[in-house]
Design a protein that fits this description.
Layout lengths: L1 H18 L14 H23 L7 E13 L5 E4 L3 H4 L4 H4 L13 H13 L4 E9 L5 E10 L6 E12 L11 H16 L8 H7 L4 H12 L3 H19 L4 H7 L5 H12 L12
Antiparallel strand pairs: 1-2, 1-5, 3-4, 4-5
Helix pairs in contact: 1-2, 6-8, 9-11
């Protein structure tokens, strides 16, 4: 049973990796369940096929930056109208502040979530200490659906209703179309550099000169090609991925923070903490950890 649970966890991890453009990730473990193993095998084949198609067409696999734990807070009055919200809500919903303030919260919901919201309102009206977490599908100003888990609750001695959400969002990296598109061979090299970085996050990053030697190119092509496809420098990408790995380890394990810093390629915890805070706007010690 534990083996099956671990394999299912690996499947979820691979789905996330594929979604964020990491097509080099593979599931190598096996479970006791034939059905679970077949799903893992299918995902491995899918990632391999996608990787092959992308390279054959002269592209680097799509890559996304992500903002982990985007925290949204909305405050409603007793009539369930929005009276305040966190500064990132307008951007999250592609809306203007003036269009959100004093509007009915139900206007932010998809048709599918409206019946659920009406039921929640009834429960809130009958329970001064209501506190529940449910999935609501919000709809942004461009009519795009945004599924998100929301915690709905009241504070003591208050008639206001609070809605908070912690969501992971993906953001496309755009490229400058005015720049010349690298040749297919250049795209293959950048793909290989990407995969090298992703599989060596715990090690120091080689210099541009060393990387260009490893992959048989020159520093200018390497630097320019990577920025074209990923809209960032090689070093910045490497640092962001190390911090992403550290973030996941903090949430999913009970390893000491100093050990996680070391596993993520940081020899000094102070430097790790500073880089982490710069990336996520809060220190690693602020994350709530898995208690299992």
């Amino acid at each position: 049973m534990a083996q099956n649970q671990q394999q299912i966890k690996n499947i979820y991890q691979m789905l996330f990796e594929i979604a964020t453009g990491n097509l080099s990730y593979r599931i190598t473990e096996e479970s006791e369940s034939h059905e679970v193993n077949e799903v893992a095998k299918t995902l491995n084949n899918l990632a391999e096929k996608l990787q092959q198609i992308i390279l054959e067409n002269g592209y680097v696999n799509p890559h996304y930056t992500y903002q982990n734990l985007v925290q949204i807070t909305i405050i409603l009055n007793s009539d369930y109208q929005i009276i305040s919200f966190s500064p990132n809500l307008p951007n999250f919903l592609n809306s203007k502040t003036k269009d959100l303030i004093n509007s009915d919260f139900i206007n932010l919901l998809s048709q599918k979530s409206i019946p659920l919201w009406k039921k929640i309102k009834e429960e809130v009206n009958n329970d001064d200490q209501y506190h529940n977490t449910i999935q609501l599908i919000l709809i942004d100003n461009q009519k795009q659906l945004v599924p998100t888990f929301c915690t709905v609750y009241r504070l003591y001695f208050s008639n206001n209703i609070f809605i908070s959400s912690v969501t992971t969002i993906l953001q496309d990296i755009t490229t400058d179309s005015s720049k010349a598109i690298p040749r297919k061979s250049d795209a293959v090299i950048i793909q290989e550099v990407y995969e090298y970085i992703m599989s060596h996050l715990e090690e120091p990053l080689p210099t541009l000169k060393e990387l260009s030697h490893i992959f048989g190119t020159n520093e200018f092509k390497l630097k320019d090609g990577f920025r074209h496809f990923f809209n960032t420098s090689i070093y910045r990408f490497y640092t962001e991925q190390r911090l992403k790995q550290a973030h996941a380890l903090i949430l999913q394990t009970n390893l000491p923070l100093k050990e996680i810093a070391f596993m993520s390629g940081f020899n000094d915890y102070t430097n790790f903490s500073k880089a982490f805070k710069k990336q996520y706007h809060y220190p690693p010690s602020d994350l709530k950890r898995n208690k299992e």
